[in-house]
Amino acid sequence: MTDLRESRGVTAEELERLRQRVAELEARDQAIRFSINGIALSDLSGTLTFVNRSFLQMWGYEEAREVLGRSAASFWESEDVAERIIQALGEKGVWAGEMTAKRKDGERFPVQLSAAVVKNPTGSPIGMMGSFVDITERARAEARVRSVTRLYAFLSQINQAMVRSKDQDDLFRTICRVAIEFGGFRMAWIGLRDVVAGTVRPAAHAGHDDGYLELLSVSTGSVPEGKGPTGSALREGTLVVCYDVATDPRMEPWRHEALARGYRSSAAIPFRVKDQVVGALSLYASDEGFLVEEERTLLTEIGIEVSFALDNMERARDRTRAEAALRQSEETYRALFETMAQGVVYQGPDGRILSANPAAERILGLTLEQMQGRSSLDPRWRAIREDGSDFAGDRHPAMESLRTGKPVSGVMMGVFLPTQDEYRWILVDAVPEFLPGETRPHRVYATFTDVTERRKAQAALQAAKEYAENLIDTANSIVVGMDADGNVTVFNRAAEAITGYSRSELQ
Prior knowledge:
Layout: H1 2-7, H2 12-34, E1 38-42, E2 48-51, H3 53-59, H4 79-92, E3 94-102, E4 108-119, E5 125-134, H5 136-164, H6 168-181, E6 187-194, E7 199-207, H7 212-215, H8 229-236, E8 240-242, H9 255-260, E9 265-273, E10 276-285, H10 293-339, E11 343-347, E12 353-356, H11 358-364, H12 368-371, E13 383-384, H13 397-404, E14 408-417, E15 422-433, E16 443-450, H14 452-474, E17 480-482, E18 488-491, H15 493-499, H16 503-506
Antiparallel strand pairs: 1-2, 1-5, 3-4, 4-5, 6-7, 6-10, 8-9, 9-10, 11-12, 11-16, 13-14, 14-15, 15-16, 17-18
Helix pairs in contact: 5-6, 5-10
């Protein structure tokens, strides 16, 4: 053996080095064949001459004969781009970057490509080699990060809009606009629920609409037009997501028009006013399945924020309406208080007068300034009963109402007016008022009517009646009076003396 090697001019050391070189090449070949990266070799024209097992699995082929002999450009989404890369590779010797590949079944997926020109020992190019890494999961993760980042920016803008928006319409327009500018959606619209008609009315929109909303008919009932994301969200009160417009059966009534405008997935976010679902924000994206759990949480939070903003606006409107009604009520009461013929006096818990209307000033002959601070028990009032006795202590109507916490009505009282040097007779009612949760009155208001002239008229009438009766009764002539039924109503003493009948017998 030694003589044979030596006769051929190969030493033992050289043979060993040759064996090691062959082993290295075999190891490299095994590494290439079984690499987790996809490996492909082509000639200088770009025709595939070798692919490893990972390449076949990555592109969805079973055997190498299905791909060998084909142009490398045919395995990419854009053959033109692939051809330009092959040309650049020939010019520069290396190329690295991301591309979109096309599997056997037509599915697209992203890959990281590192390519180089293969040269022989003399340095002459003999082919090209590419190493491929399927970066689908990485691309998805990056897309999720971008999507979540956009949604956070979108939510932040909604929070700012809640502070800045003047009214509901302004808020709706702003939400739709920032959904496009910061959320990255293709189209956004807000629909309000028409409870009577059972339909959804668009209130605002932004983005690529192209007449979509004019064609859109959404119901809130359990009909095909109500089973899409928007109708379902309004009916169920929860976030509803369509991951793929092209295959989701709920999108059947709108699929053709939605796909024609580039809508590939969508979500509908319901919002509430006073716990009642009143509308929904519908968002459309240009890619399928753009939502993961974190994004769903953010979209749900967007609905909560919009509901919070609308509740605040509704409370502000309620407050404005209540304040306007209160002002109107106060103005009405003030006008009534100032112009009513009855006197009105408000008194505190100690009976001291707080305010009085003009009629009270006129009836009592005192100005408000003169009355304020006086108690009902002030001896300067010199109040008396009908029999002429004084009102004792808390038997005064206002004081009794404060003491018992009950209304007092129909009390006749005479109040002496020094300026007129006479008593004015008033008919008094007193009503207690309470603060919320309190059992003791915090004030009382007394209303009273001046009945002095009426009492004088009644007294004059009574006196006239008595005078007439006395004249008739003492007349020398017979005076007899009868009513319409012939009953005797008047029979004076002269008539009794002449006829012999007594008045009681005939009446």
